[in-house]
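Why this split exists: single-chain examples teach little about how molecules sit against one another. For that reason, every record in the complexes split bundles all components of an assembly together and asks for one structure covering all of them. Below is a record exactly as it appears in the raw files.
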Amino acid sequence: MAHSPELLKGTLQTIILKILKDHGKTYGYEITHRVKELSAGSILLTEGALYPTLHRLEAEGLVKTEKVLMGKRVRKYYLLTPEGKSEAKDRVAEFVDFIKTMSTVLQVNIA
Amino acid sequence: MAHSPELLKGTLQTIILKILKDHGKTYGYEITHRVKELSAGSILLTEGALYPTLHRLEAEGLVKTEKVLMGKRVRKYYLLTPEGKSEAKDRVAEFVDFIKTMSTVLQVNIA
DNA sequence: TCATATACCTAATTCAATTAGGTATTATGG
DNA sequence: CCATAATACCTAATTGAATTAGGTATATGA
């Protein structure tokens, strides 16, 4: 079911950037649920990992935020900046490249 | 050329176990060169990463060592224990599973 | 009313990997 | 013949992303 968390390291930013690119503005809690759904439950992005990563991406200028009042609760949407969009594309391409290399090194067929 | 080192995190043990499984007994310096060659220069496994990992695998009982005297120099071969062989298989399978999941999440085709 | 879900967050810790060395032997080009 | 590169082992200190383990508050369904 769930993957070894070791392998997930280094992929969190890529996942989040891609989610934001495909889905447009998304709030934090929603991101964890989208990842869980897309991965059929095998990638469980905890909030302790999510929020620091989002804040890091924001500090790097790759995402920006919009606060929306929902009843008495403030919901914070995250969305890509233009640089974020470009970076999302690059990171995904890099990941594809990486798994191609790894497939060769590990001598496995990805079909 | 070289990949973002972030993505490599968590894959080092898998790479090393697979090299030892395919190649049989191999010494440390040789492992770095095999990985570099197999990856066409895009995975540069430094010795600072390699040796601690090999020692960790040894402590976990997945690899054992054989010292061979080459002239005045001691060469230390690393080879899989039976548990290491089994673990190598499992780790590679896990990695394949992981990239399948990631392909879905990132919506990319691996061909 | 009480647990569960929603929704944001952070502080402390962990631990693999990076950086930056150290030591010594063996080949090789000028 | 000598200096440099290549071979070959290693470790200590640091980094930094992720994990663990919380905290706060609102909304909802049984």
